[in-house]
Amino acid sequence: MSASQNLIKSSHLVSQGAEAASRLSFPCLQKYQCPKVYKAHLTPDSPPLLLKYRFQKQYRHPSLDVNLTRSRIAGEARALLKCLRSGVNVPGIRMVDATEGVLGIEWIEGQSVRKLLPGESEGDDEGEGEVGEEPTDEEKLDALKEYGVSIDQLMSLIGTEIAKMHLADVIHGDLTTSNMILRRPSSSSIPDIPTQTQLFLIDFGLSYTSSLIEDKAVDLYVLERAFSSTHPDSSLMFTGVLAAYQKKMGEKRWGVVKARLDDVRLRGRKRSMVG
Amino acid sequence: MQSFVFDHIPNNNIAYFALYSPVQNPAELKRRIIEAAKIEGEEGDKERDAVNFAFIDASLITSKLHLETAIYQAILAESQGSLRTKTVHSEILFALNPTNNITEAIRRYGVSDSTKSLLIAHITDKSKSSSAIEEKLNKVVDGTMVSFKELDAITDWDRIKKYYKLEKESKEKGAIQSQRSFIDNVVVSSVAMKTVMQ
Ligand SMILES: Nc1ncnc2c1ncn2[C@@H]1O[C@H](COP(=O)(O)OP(=O)(O)O)[C@@H](O)[C@H]1O
Ligand SMILES: [Mg+2]
Questions:
Q1: Where do the H-state alpha helices sit in chain A?
Q2: Beta-strand pair B143-146/A180-183
Q3: Rounded to two decimals, what is the model's pTM?
Q4: How many domains does chain A have?
Q5: Among residues A131, A146, B26, B42, which is most buried (max CB within 10 A)?
Q6: What is the distance in angstroms between the Cα of B26 and the nearest Cα belonging to chain A?
């Protein structure tokens, strides 16, 4: 058996398949190659990794499949590196085995934002197949307190990080509250520096590089829709996200993105009236 | 001497490594490595075995994770029959360099006449003990083996910033520890994803 297959065998399954929001917005893309994710260690003393494994589908031509897997992993890794270099909080890359379809990234100790905000419970057919139970709204707010940030501050962290990513011309392509992790303050790797709670963007499987206003506006719109479908009564929260985004982008850049976002919203509304 | 043990790798699953600082005979080491590749017959095999290590300029290594990542990608390439260089040891140097130029990788990351500190690695399987490796190593290296912790004072952050074009970006990180942790993360990530870089 190959090295990466053995590595996966020795690790723990974290979740399986894609989450609800992205499956709804990108049904065709998600059907092909949903990754499985595992927590692993390269050596017993190494820091933990998150392995994303895109298993090969049998029905497609094998060599074509390897190339598709390879280019998806390459795309995700390149977007992560571009973000890292630009100072966006994303997991570092720790190992790549494109032949076997495995991407290993830095394990971020914390909690997904989706699980820290009030919202629908899982368990229906839109569940993301994660191991473990969904906490109640009250438990979520208690958990958020442990991180020492309020909901407002959390929204501000989100808006700032997305703006940093857009300033680097990276479009996420699947912004949802599941694809953001609030990192526990104690788990930073720098020993001498008092660490604050930080927000990390994850899951760059659908990301791409673009400087187009349209792409940035659509990125924000996807998140707005994700907020309203996963977290009821969240429109004020999303306003907080945009306020921080505006601040980080600067007035001039924000002006054009804002105008385009209004446009995208209008198109979205028209489409839902027709369909 | 320390080691990384990759239990899930079918063969060659242990990497011994040691930090030597200072090193007294870098020029001789370099000459021996070059000569060993040319000598023919049994004598050549013996000499190649004597220098069968990855000799890495320690001043270009940012952390233990950096070394581990380069070693891991080299072992992975070997296990898949996709080495870009002649041996798993030269592959480590290749993995460390941001470009695909093998000569440049060896010139930058290998031993040169002016090398002061060396990180030396040997990849093998569990049947070989660390004392056997250490004995072999002490025959070729004239220098002092020190604790890996000493690397902190050896790393040449300015040169690494230059190779990875991170001068401007790292300045924005403020405190020196934040800068170093930022550079380390970018460097480790670049090594890890080198096979899908282009
Ligand atoms: N770096 C990471 N550290 C810790 N957990 C992670 C990390 N990356 C992803 N996860 C967890 O795994 C889940 C799935 O990963 P993700 O990259 O979003 O893949 P996908 O949504 O395509 O299945 C995330 O929702 C998160 O809970
Ligand atoms: Mg996801």
A1: 3-9, 20-25, 27-31, 62-85, 137-146, 151-167, 213-230, 235-249, 251-274
A2: unpaired
A3: 0.92
A4: 1
A5: B26
A6: 31
Per-residue pLDDT band for A132 (boundaries 50, 70, 90) equals: low
pLDDT score of A88: 97
Query: pLDDT over 90 for what percent of chain B?
Result: 89
CATH of the domain at A39: 1.10.510.10
Q: What are phi and psi of B2, to 5 degrees?
A: -110, 175
**Which domains does chain B show, CATH number per domain?**
2-196 (3.30.2380.10)
Considering only the beta carbons, identify the residue of A42, A70, A96 that sits closest to B193.
A96
When CB atoms are compared, the residue of A2, A43, A191 closest to B4 is: A43
d(CA B14, CA A79): 32
Q: Is A76 near ligand 1, meaning CB less than 6 Å away? A: no
ipTM: 0.96
Distance CA A37, CA A129 (A): 11
Q: Which two tokens stand for residue A265?
A: 């919203």
What residue has token string 């385009």?
A: A260
**What is the helix (H) or strand (E) element at residue B102, kind and residue range?**
helix B102-109
DSSP 8-class letter at B17: E
Phi and psi angles of residue B112, each rounded to the nearest 5 degrees, phi first:
-125, 170
